[in-house]
Fold this sequence. Notes:
Elements: H1 3-18, H2 20-38, H3 42-66, H4 68-79
Helix pairs in contact: 1-2
Amino acid sequence: MGAFETFFDTIVICSILFGEKGVKISRWVYVIPIIFAVGPELNVVWTLGSIALAVMAIPNLLALFMLRKEFFRLVKEFFDPKNQ
């Protein structure tokens, strides 16, 4: 998926969840890293990218942890011989 599609998807999701204010915030979330990436050395840019990746991964890991009981229940139900 290209950067444009990702940007568009984020805008749509933010508009659904948070309205126009969320759209403005999500636009700045995409613009600010570009401004910071222009000046510093390359290793600083890679470090900022790694931090951004961690910031995206932490909520997903938290959601997986919170859904673990439901996941194991569905797996058990799927592999139950009675259902086949």
